[in-house]
Specification:
Number of helices: 7
Largest sheet: 6 strands, mixed
Strand content: 15-25%
Strand order of the largest sheet: 3-2-4-1-5-6
Shape: globular
CATH superfamily: Phosphoglycerate mutase-like
Distance between the termini: 32 Å
């Protein structure tokens, strides 16, 4: 039986500053690397030894995956469909800058809905590409599958797999280097067994 583990990358300097990253390719900082090592200790207590890892191609997720795999030799792949949402002109902005420059869109976002400007990748698009990737990998992996993704792409993926609404805040965000576990449901689809496990308490932002 395939169990699906969804892991968020460790902290970056933009996370620590509160800047929205999206598709910007920002590397882990030293705190993030330490978080990834902590995630490895947490995950390998519950993973099967033949687990397969697939990460986003963005460097912060790929490095997190490499640190978690470490010297265990687990298969490690990359899939661009697990990458973070594109936020267009919001990328790199602080929260107060988004509120000042895009007040209506920022208010919608805080309420769990979507902004409306060019360059923003919708919930539906993010969920569809992530779900397609996971379905393909699940068909190839008989045991534990670990996907290392991002705050928004990981949340959209889980909401889609669980059949929950993509808008609103039905499912809380994954913290940096935290993981969730989904298992096949007897009625079909997936069930959320654990959520936001092992999040280091460093007060980082999405």
């Amino acid at each position: 039986m395939t169990r699906l583990f969804v892991v968020r990358h460790g902290q970056t300097d933009w996370n620590a500053a509160g800047r929205l990253q999206g598709s910007s390719d920002i590397p882990l900082n030293d705190t993030g690397r330490g978080q990834a090592r902590a995630a490895a200790a947490s995950l390998w207590r519950v993973l099967e030894p033949d687990a397969v890892f697939v990460s986003s191609t963005l460097v912060r997720a790929a490095e997190t995956a490499r640190i978690i795999v470490g010297e265990r030799g687990a298969p490690l792949h990359q899939d661009a469909r697990l990458g973070e949402r594109r936020y267009g002109p919001w990328e790199g902005l602080l929260a107060h800058e988004r509120a000042e420059q895009f007040p209506d869109d920022d208010a919608a976002w805080k309420a769990g809905f979507e902004p409306d400007f060019d360059g923003y990748e919708s919930h539906v698009t993010v969920a569809a590409r992530g779900t397609a990737a996971v379905h393909e990998w699940v068909a190839r992996v008989p045991g534990d599958l670990v996907v290392v993704a991002h705050g928004s792409s990981g949340r959209m993926l889980m909401l889609s797999l669980l059949g929950l609404a993509l808008e609103g805040r039905t499912l809380g965000n994954l913290e940096n280097a935290a993981w969730s576990r989904l298992v096949p449901s007897p009625a079909g689809g997936w069930s959320l067994e654990r959520h936001n496990v092992g999040a280091p308490a460093v007060g980082v932002r999405p």
